[in-house]
Amino acid sequence: MAAETAPRATGRIERARQIEARKLARRSFLRVSAFAGLTLFTGSLLASFLGFFNLRRPTGFGGTVTVTADRIPRPGADPVRIPEGKFWLVNLNGPEGDVLQVGGTGGLLALYWKCPHLGCTVPWNPAFNGAQVNFPGIIGWFRCPCHGSTYSKAGVRVYGPAPRSMDTMRLTVNADGSVNVNTGQITSGSSENPLREVPYA
Ligand code: FES
Known about the structure:
By secondary structure, the chain is α+β, with helices and mostly antiparallel strands. The protein has two domains: about 1-55; about 65-195, Rieske [2Fe-2S] iron-sulphur domain (Rieske Iron-sulfur Protein, 3-layer Sandwich), CATH 2.102.10.10. Helices cover about 25% and strands about 25% of the residues. The chain is built from one helix and ten strands; from the N terminus they run αββββββββββ. Strands 1-10-9-4-3-2 form a six-stranded antiparallel beta sheet, with no helix packed on it. The protein has a four-stranded antiparallel beta sheet with strand order 5-6-7-8, with no helix packed on it. The radius of gyration is 33 Å and the shape is rod-shaped. The termini are far apart. The structure holds FE2/S2 (inorganic) cluster. FE2/S2 (inorganic) cluster binds next to loops.
């Protein structure tokens, strides 16, 4: 009799152990799931925060836009429109564009295309004759379609209701001939825009 009782007791103990082990496994699974969920939630919160405050080093407008060498105009050529950065890239040939003669010696300028008057996008008009704004002999101007503000190739205002010249963006030249334009670093335009030209060999 005693010999039959002993295996039954051992079986009960073994079953109890298995039940306890299953409970422990379930508890640790729940703990790991909760931790993973919390990590995901925190990650998505952080991503939203960075996106909202624009801290992820944006590369379009608002951040740095790189223009490869093949897109950079030759000295004296028409300005090139850079839509991803909302600016015109201009390569001035010597004193070109320095219509008020402040001492421009040529080079690159990134001109923000937003008109300083009421914000219209300013196009380059390669056929516009400066004679219409008292600068005869100069063909090709930035001319705002909204109220006629007119700017030289260096963005210098010569005519119209705009309160100042076109604004410029910080531009640096890279070793491979490309340029970086920081579209988040904008300086108010002035008649001295030509003094901001960056030499480009
Ligand atoms: S918005 Fe350009 S002149 Fe008025």
